[in-house]
Amino acid sequence: MEDLPDWLTPLPDAETMRRVDRWAIDEQGVDSLELMERAGGAVAAAVERLAPDGSVAVYCGKGNNGGDGLVVARLLREAGRDVAVVCASPPGELEGDAGENLKRLPGDGPVRLDGSPWRGKGAGRGKRSSPLDDRVAIVDALLGTGFRGEPHGEIAAAIEELAKAAAPVISVDVPSGVDASTGVVAGPAVRAAATVTFHAAKAGLWIRPGKEYAGAVEVADIGIPRGAPMASAIGLIEPTVLALLPRRSGSSTKFASGHVLVVGGSLGLTGAPAMASRAAMRAGAGYVTALVPAGLQQVLAGSGMPELMTRGLPESEGALSNVGVEQVLEATARGGALALGPGLGRTEQAAVFARRLARAAKLPMVLDADGLNAHAGRLAELTHRPAATVLTPHAGELGRLLELDSDEVEAERLRHVREASRRSGAIVVLKGDDTLVAAPDGHVAVSRGGSPALATAGTGDVLTGVIAALLAQRLDPFLAAAAGVLLHVRAGRLAALAVGSAEAVIAGDVIEALARARGQEGAGG
Asked: How far is the C-alpha of 435 from the C-alpha of 438, rounded, in Å?
């Protein structure tokens, strides 16, 4: 697998981080205790920022993550803070660097989950007050990046105890119960206010459902030297991707800027192709043609977009008829890109139309909405397309494509988006706050999200138009999809600022913000 492009920041998995640690320790001579010291110091500093005064509880497991927690406890105690150290398993089971940091811990030894001591007089007897009582912050150092599956036993009990905490929780490296490599949450998991992760953010901190448990993510430098073996197939989309978008020059023409053909529309669903068309214009397409059922052509022509060209196609039951495929193919002769599906409808004729056109069209294509539904259970048919394909499903649509329940998709978003890309040979954009852009070679670009304004009807059509415009400008499809996702998120944020709140945004506001979003090359993601 090739390296990630420069506009993606690698999000390593657990195995990669194990290799990085071993490389730093075994090949670069970095002291493992010093790495643990710096990791604990970064978390302790985060606690001091979040809750500068008051009592703290640190919950430790028996691995290196627990060792990091013991460093946090020691540093906070040395700073004069009252700290309860809670071990989910006997402290005697701590080995290596974690065991060494237990020896260095000043003050009282660790207690059990119920607050009773592990050692000394009364060990295991006589319940005390809960270690969670009257704390201003809780540190979760139970499970580290190597955890997979579902927590059991005392660890699960500790995680369930933390769910009762009134104080904010700061997780060490990854919230306990979250798979650091995938974001999967198979059982109880800590819902953190913040996660301090080391050297690089892990994929599971940015991919749902894990993203919902991580809170604010802080990446701490713990002294791993430059040149660490950080090969990763997953990366965060960075603003630098926008520098790769084409710009119009004095010699540009509308043909050089790309032609987008938006194919869809049905009775009651004329807004979708209209929004996709307008978004394509705002995203830089030189000209846009909407191909819709003949009976709806005048509706599109009179929709307030004099720049939009329209063409009526044969219709059946208020939707596109299968016999119109040849006319669309004729319209593609001058090149560009297709956006197939907005407002298409779910009649059998429209579904057959979509499948025939997708197979035959020689242009790059974005397939969305009912264009996707027409391919439910038929992903493999798309592998025969003669040009690049980008699919833009939400979880429900991806579930139909893969013949799964949408809840199954949401539980393992990374696995299922990769599977859909592999089966279809297409770039697959799984929409959500953590929108994932998967390529057939296994690479995945992840959006930082953070634009709740996009949770409104029609914004999916906007994204379709944006990506189609970038494809029409001859961008690589993986790049076009990722850049389109970033533009879409930025436009959502700008729209919310313009109208005053995310809740008031409508899809048209997002379209109007696209120009400003594209002009912010140097701004954050």
From this structure: 10
Three-class SS of 449-467:
CCCHHHCCCCHHHHHHHHH
pLDDT tens digit sequence for 239-279: 999 999 988 766 666 766 799 999 999 999 999 999 999 99
CATH of 8-232, one of 3.40.50.10260, 3.30.499.10, 3.90.45.10, 1.10.760.10: 3.40.50.10260
Please give, one letter per residue, the 3-state secondary structure of 191-234: CCCEEEEECCCCHHHCCCCHHHHHCEEEEECCCCCCCCCCCCCE
Per-residue model confidence as pLDDT tens digits over 174-225: 999 999 999 999 999 999 999 999 999 999 999 999 999 999 999 999 999 9
Domain ranges of the chain: 8-232, 239-243+253-449+456-518
Q: For 510, which DSSP code?
A: H
Tokens of 444: 């995945």
In the three-class reduction of DSSP (H, G, I as helix; E, B as strand; rest coil), residue 187 is classed as coil
Question: pLDDT digits over 295-315, tens only?
Answer: 999 988 877 888 999 999 999
- Write the class of the CATH domain 239-243+253-449+456-518: alpha beta
